[in-house]
Structures are given as structure tokens and as C-alpha cells.
Amino acid sequence: MKIFKNDYAITTLMKGNYFMKSMIVTSLIIAIAFTNVNLFAKVTGETGIGKDVFKVIVTLYDITNSTKDITTLVNVKDQTKVKLFNAENPETEGQDKESYTITFPNVTVNDGDPFTVCTVSVENFKLNCKEGNNSPLNRPEFVDINVSGGGGSEDEGEEE
Length: 160
Description:
This protein is of the alpha+beta class.
């Protein structure tokens, strides 16, 4: 009983099918390896180059109607940036907190490098400083400052 008339053609198709399956499996393995190359990279601090810019997010909270103007200074290595909270600004009126993102492009900040955030209010001209260290994660550093009590969060720049 001869069901198939050309056994050679069927054998050739079967061999080609195994070759195609091996090519598909190999290409999938290569594609997965290339997409996960970033997982094998070493975790480092911000380099200050390109999109990898050192950022500090400062949040002033517990702002009341009696809060006066507050100057915020952030120092990293040999650079200092200043932001002013204007209590009479109509855009911030009625808000109990204000956040600033302060960036330091073109500054290489390694893991564990210190930075300092200071605030001074025109109410008492008392300098309130917090020190933090750059975390090994590639994310901004966070500092919370209580403007009514003069204190801030206990973690001093580190996010929990």
C-alpha cells in the first residue's frame, strides 16, 4: 500500500522542518539575551552625562499662612543651586507643601558621595541643614523639610 508517491520529498520536508525549528529556537534565545543585557550591568551612581543627571527633590512641607519666604540651597561637590519659596506667590497660595527638583548636569556623583541641603527663612535667618549620600540606585535623592518646626524627616535624604 503506497499512500505517498514521493517518499524522498516528504523526507526532505521533514529535515527542513527540524532546521527551521532549530533556527527559531536559536533566534529566540539570542533575542532574549540581547533584551536582558541591561540586567547584567553594574549598578552605579549618576554620571552627570546625558540623561544620567544627579537630581535632588526637596519637599518643603507643613507650610502655613504665617510661613515667610524660604531659601533652599543644595550643594553637591563644588556646585551649589538655590531655589526661593515665595510665600506671596499666588500659584502656591493655600498649599501645605512645595517640591523642587534641583538638577546638577555635568557633575559626576559616585555612590556614597555626600550632598547637603540647607534652608533659611527670612523669619529667623536660622540655617537648617541636612546631609545625605548618593544612593547606588539610579534615581533622584529625596529630602523632606518641615518648615514650621525647622526639622525634617529622620532619614535625611534617603527614601525608605
